[in-house]
Amino acid sequence: MRLTVELAAGRKSSLLLRNPVMLAAGTCGYGLEYARIAEIERLGAIVSKGTTLRPRRGNAQPRTREVAAGLLNAIGLQNPGIETVIRRYAPIWSTWQTPVIVNIAGETVEEFAELAQRLEGVPGVAGIEVNVSCPNVRAGGRVFGESPEAVAAVTAAVRQSTTLPVIVKLSPNTGDARPTALAAAEAGADAVSLINTLTGMDIDLEARRPLPAHGTGGLSGPAIRPLALRMVYEVACELRERQPGVAVIGIGGITSASDALAFIMAGAVAVQIGTANFVNPRTGVLVLEGIEAFMRAHGIENIAELVGAALP
User: Fold this and answer.
1) Known catalytic residues?
2) What is the DSSP letter of 21?
3) Model confidence over 259-301: pLDDT tens digits?
4) Closest Cα partner for 257 from 271, 278, 267?
5) 227 and 260 in contact (C-beta within 8 Å)?
6) Measured between alpha carbons, how far is 68 from 214 in angstroms, rounded to an integer?
7) pLDDT digit string (tens) for 97-136?
8) Is residue 166 scored above 90 in pLDDT?
9) Binding site listing for FMN
10) Which fold has domain 5-59+75-201+219-305?
């Protein structure tokens, strides 16, 4: 069976994944701890924790709240900063067979561009995922991902700053991801990944205060899967018609091979496993094995036969 997936085909630094199963940003750190407890070499790729220009301490505790069929988190992009990532983690990644894609986050278009520039040519860095679910300090704190114009500006700046494959991770909080997906595609993205978390909250009944402590958090996990699947389907239809060279990567509540296959049939060439990693760090491997079993049972030789199979 052929499970390989190519991102950024035709670019100087195209990215070939051995299979379509990836780990999502923020759910496996920088991969080192994960590599000690699960078979990281069997995965298609991992996406690093969100990384900024300078170190960030993140938000106040409590930062997480388990809810029915999901998880609220407001970590606040705690990370050691790009220079530490390049110095401490990239040399280790360069020894792995599994490619590592670095998720980047900035407060201005210029910060995104500088992050991309610093990652250019770094051994161990296979690609960039651009987190546009960040506040734009020059637009009164409005999230970049809410505006197609802002998404296009960030994508173009990153594209001009690197030859690495560029994936733009889209926010679902606009309700319709098609305008921002198209904006990213037209500005030079090689792929779009969706969805990021949905904004939500809970209440601490004893303290009578919102949870997480930040006030709101991002909802992930099985609760968001149907919505994520719908948005992936819509974006895949839109891009197939208007930007057919841009790939779609599905994210949102995937816990099983059946979930992953639904996203693939909805038009995703690959999927990312997120919150499920906290329940079972081997979820990615189990999902891969389930995809292989489905293909064998149905006589499918190439995963490409399943990509978009449910699209009109």
Assistant:
1) 134
2) E
3) 999 999 999 999 999 999 999 999 999 999 999 999 999 999 9
4) 271
5) no
6) 20
7) 999 999 999 999 999 999 999 999 999 999 999 999 876 5
8) yes
9) 49-50, 103, 131, 169, 195, 221, 252-253, 274-275
10) TIM Barrel (3.20.20)
150/129 Cα distance (integer angstroms): 16
What residue type is 216 in one-letter code? Answer: T
- Is 71:275 a contact under the CB 8 Å cutoff? yes
Residue type, 109: V
The residue type found at 125 is V
Task: Name the token pair of 223.
Answer: 């609760």
Residues 117/111, Cβ–Cβ less than 8 Å: no
Q: Per residue in 223-269, pLDDT tens?
A: 999 999 999 999 999 999 999 999 999 999 999 999 999 999 999 99
| Binding-site annotation, residues | 49-50, 73-77, 103, 131, 169, 195-197, 221, 252-253, 274-275
Give the residues across from 51 on adjacent strands. 104
